[in-house]
Protein 1
Amino acid sequence: MEDVYGELKQIINGDVALDEETLKAYSSDASLFRVMPKAVVFPKDVDDIKALVRFVADKKSANPELSLTVRSGGSDMSGGPLNDSIIVDVNKYINHFKEVVHDKRFSDGGGYATAQPGMFYRDFEKKTLAEHLLMPSYPASREISTIGGMVANNAGGEKTLKYGKTEDYVLQLKMVLRDGNEYVFRSLNKSELDAKMKLKTVEGEIYSELYKLISENNAILKKAKPKVSKNSAGYYLWNVWNGDKQIFDIPKLIVGSQGTFGIITEITFRLIKPKEHSTLLVILLKDLDKLADVVLRVLEYKPESFESYDDHTLRVALKFLPDMIKLLGAKNLISLGLQFLPEFWMVITGGVPKLFLEAEFTGDSESEIYEKARAAQSGLKEFGVKTRIAKSDKEEQKYWTVRRESFNLLRHHVKGKQTAPFIDDIIVRPEKLPEFLPKLTDIMNNYDLIYTIAGHIGYGNLHIIPLMDI
Ligand SMILES: Cc1cc2nc3c(=O)[nH]c(=O)nc-3n(C[C@H](O)[C@H](O)[C@H](O)COP(=O)(O)OP(=O)(O)OC[C@H]3O[C@@H](n4cnc5c(N)ncnc54)[C@H](O)[C@@H]3O)c2cc1C
């Protein structure tokens, strides 16, 4: 077997690593799992990816354990980029930006952008924001994940409440399939679909079989579609064929399939024109009794995002405050540190709320956003909960940083223990949370664990992260 992996160096121009240190580094992601690969390859370009796929296809019958798994940012929390054979790192070289374009087709003033999958979202966003455009489904891991991983995982995040998930923004994908060729996937009308189905190639076979599968089982698929406020489990067969509009949209199936259909080599995202102004209404809950009422009431005011974190998350953030501030750039060090004084005071006086909720209101002017935030604040009066409207960008940034970065900091600061997201990324409808959360924390507290609970409260999507000695 070693010889097979040794041969990789002859078939690609990029790098091949077989050393223990690299293999170990690629044996984990942000999940619980550890799987040791035999080789890690860094393709230089799409031709290298094609060569890799052909190599594995040729050698597979003599070496059945050979397989390819793509890794990009490696921030997956489910073991998706792990494999005991060959890991294909697209982050190192397949990370170029192609173009960002304003497009009059989109009535909201949006556009589109095309880039390679290994590009970090944070770099991609810089390019789109320079044109006042945004891909809004970025995850909380926006600083460490790439656009390829976002497509493969159907990432969603703080703006999903208003704008939806990555599946709503993929206009076109290029992907290398099992025959080692690169194909373009976009939505097709019925005559384009008919033409594809006539092809005597792997592509033709895929379109024919998929169309048959979906059209023959339409009723079963519709019935099987989960009735949840968010689903990122992948293989959304029910979203591919729109019989009314006669549109066949294969990217809807590829998004969320965690790289199991092929290797994505280029992505074109639809972009929105983001609102210029934003503020946060922060709600501090000392217990969970009124959680459902509060969440449902705030949703009536249509926030652009509605996020939450618990008292444990805040304590982690304060414990590792210097690192957290460093993440935001050294120039913010003192002024941002000072922003946290009220939170330190809460800890000292024993007044830390059980849950922090942050509802973001956006608009075209300062007056519009404060009007919206104040209306929501008044709407909460009858519940007698403590609220606060962020008065400056710095204050807003503070709340966002705790929400986005605390789990990541926890991951990097544990000695002998690891973050164990084994009940992570669950969906519980907001109205059920007051029943669910106390039961959950009762269990966690039985085990003397450090843990954080944070998430997208607006649609009941929570990350529950205990720190454990596995
Ligand atoms: C602190 C933290 C917070 C997070 N918050 C969120 C959140 O709010 N929302 C959310 O959705 N997720 C979240 N995640 C999970 C994860 O970060 C995202 O899903 C992210 O989009 C994954 O991107 P990545 O580049 O790290 O992908 P990787 O981890 O490298 O890969 C993810 C999957 O995509 C596949 N893949 C990657 N590139 C390709 C390609 N070119 N072709 C085919 N398949 C490919 C991999 O094989 C793997 O199955 C979070 C993770 C962490 C650690």
Protein 2
Amino acid sequence: MGTVSRRTFLKLVAAGTAAAMWQGNAAVPAMASATPYRLKDTKVSPSVCIYCGVGCGLLVYAKDGKVINVEGDPDNPNNEGGLCGKGASAYEVYASPKRLQKILYRAPGSDQWEEKEWSWAIPEIAKRIKKTRDANFTIKDGEVIANRANALGHLGGASHDTDECYLLSKLARSLGIVNIEHQARI
Ligand code: SF4
């Protein structure tokens, strides 16, 4: 076996590297273009986050009659494009496949959830509220008129908007509920 000079060895390495690079390039198809801009041809509408009194500005992008993206409005002086976790989830509230579409009911003592209709749930909730209120209502606390429904409580949730919270707190107070709380204080 003949010896290979240093110069010949370097030429062979260079040729091999060039061939490998050429093959590598040939194996990867050239990208025709960059990834298409997903907000291209959308209609953008400025809006305001519904969730709290900060009033952050939103940009809502729609295509073919459907919302496809919601993000903070950089021109709004309240938030300058930023959103808190709640506002940033605005699109998910609209589009998430995990969003519950049906009422789920778990009977007392059961470990199973059952799907129910609104026509069953609303009268059932009203019936149970009335029964609990009637059985526990405090008209007087000593000599002081109380009109208090001690056995009931009301808990708001993060997807309630400002108007819904206003109406729900009015409803709760009209029933005499004093245990009113919200899970998403800001
Ligand atoms: S919930 Fe968050 S994003 Fe919405 S207005 Fe309030 S602070 Fe802004």
Protein 3
Amino acid sequence: MRDFTLKAYRSLLEAFLQAGYRFLTFEEFLEHPEECKAIVMRHDVDELAWNALKMAQLEHGLGVRATYYFRIVKQSNVPEVIRQVVELGHEVGYHYEDLALAEGDEEKAMASFEKNLAYFRTYYPVRTVCMHGSSTSKYDNRLLWKSHWLPDYGLIGEPYLSVDFNKVYYLTDTGYAWDGEKIAVRDVVKTGFDLSFHTTKQIVDCVGRGQFPDQALILAHTLWTDRPFQWYWLHVREYIRNNIKHFARNNKTVAVVYEKAVNWYWKKKH
Ligand SMILES: [Zn+2]
């Protein structure tokens, strides 16, 4: 059976529901960290915004609320999608990358951060933000918070800064695998758990056996699809991308060419 389809995603949600877990949005979780069996489903909408809507509808049908982080680039920032995701009862936040876009200019980055945050607040009263990895940029977007304070911007949390991952299990579907951390450059966290999965089915089985941690933050991107052509194309693309990323680590020329290609692909909207 193909993994990372909407069908597989549904089986994952149903496994948690059957095992008595509650799904909380990230803002709810920050306000009620004591909730004993809780899953925060976080979606970074890096691209393919319409796929996010499909996931949001599926979740809604199961009574699940999740958190969607949208980027300012046009591949993510699709007003119709954001509007509908809000209507389905999910939390929306800003997937910021201002420091990378401003090439390290902190003042410029903070000005665009505020402007973009205000923009996303026209859809939803945004209270949490989450950094985009910007893997080819040398700037780590999170560093904005070294000299600024979230509450000054009406924010209560940032997944990379506000969660103790020794207590909350962290899972991400980077590179179409649940154990693809090796290739993720920045979207990694230090964790106190000695537990790892490769396929969605393995997670479902673990939840069924009652061996899955009580609290988890799960990052699922928008590459989950039931459409065979899109599924195959994305798998080939991820495979190539992972290899280039791996190669670029040891080869400067490859790294530079890759960064140029990525920047061209994400041509800024503004
Ligand atoms: Zn991202």
